[in-house]
Amino acid sequence: MTSGPIAQATAGAAPRTDEKYYQAAPPRSLGERLVVMARDRIYDDFLACCRPEPHHTLIDVGVSDVVNDAANMLERKYPHPQRITAAGLGEAGDFRRAYPAVTYVRIEPNSPLPFADQAFDIATSNAVLEHVGSPRNQAAFVAELMRVARQVFISVPHRYFPVEHHTAIPLMHFWDRSFALACRWSGKSEWSDAANLILMSRGRLRALVPTGRKALIGRTGIPLGPFSSNLFLHIDGSAK
Fold first, then answer.
1. 189 within domain boundaries
2. Does a structural domain hold residue 193?
3. E strands of the chain, at which residues?
4. Of 8, 107, 124, 206, which has the fewest Cβ atoms less than 10 A away?
5. Which CATH number do you get for residue 109?
6. What is the pTM of this model?
């Protein structure tokens, strides 16, 4: 992947670079409790779709260097952490201490994942795809997860949840122009830059599925029907 989508999703040499992704949900706030609720439901959908067994191997791409009740859903909940390999760009000292049974692999910017084809049973990535920089990068990111695992489960914030996840701006994010204006007014212009955030919809997820590949796109997280907080994409490599 020459465009480096994984690098952009987790980039930064400074420690705890993911803190900006949790600004709208500080510790012990209502926002954090809602994020935890949403990610617990995402985890339930992950189990329902992928049906992992104790012997299955998992790769979690783009783990957070922030350790709190809302981050790193898979490592926080999965009962067989010794079967998880977590991938990120940083040294991940806090992550390693919090999840000592998980194998952590530091990945290189602008490079493919350092794993053989179909090295894992399941590849997961939560709240990463929307940050990889462009639709082309997103397609490359999905393709790389499909290369290293037989099943892929990706979850993202849903554009049409009433409150935008990263900025806490209500409703204005339904349209690109109004979201850009709201970000400018609130001093959060970085989030209107596609290099930092692409607001995700079912249509945008569907466009990333390779032709002829069977995939399931569903709503998850906080359940509000068509305005639910998150979406997931499940691709089963054994099904065409």
1. no
2. no
3. 58-61, 84-88, 103-106, 120-126, 149-157, 215-220, 230-236
4. 206
5. 3.40.50.150
6. 0.88
Q: Measuring CA to CA, which residue among 158, 173, 168, 166 is closest to residue 227?
A: 158
**pLDDT one-digit tens code per residue, 44-95:** 999 999 999 999 999 999 998 888 877 899 999 999 999 999 998 788 899 9
**Does residue 225 lie in a domain region?**
yes
- Residues 239 and 233: their CA atoms lie apart, in Å, by 14
Residue 71 sits in which domain range? 5-162+198-236
Through-space distance between the first and last CA atoms of the chain, rounded to whole angstroms: 24
List, as one string, the DSSP characters of 185-197.
HTT-GGGGSTTT-
Q: What are phi and psi of 4, to 5 degrees?
A: 70, 45
Cβ neighbours around 211 below 10 Å, total: 4
Report d(CA 84, CA 113) in Å as an integer. Answer: 15
Beta bridge partners of 87: 61, 105
33 Rama class: left (phi>0) / alpha (psi -120 to 50) / beta: alpha
Phi, psi torsion values for 55, nearest 5 degrees: -90, -10
The total domain count for the chain is 1
Long-range pairs of 167-176 with CB within 8 A, sequence gap ≥ 24: 167/24, 167/191, 168/24, 168/31, 173/199
For residue 89, give the 3-state DSSP assignment. Answer: coil
pLDDT confidence tier of residue 105, bands split at 50, 70 and 90: very high
Residue 184 lies in a domain: no
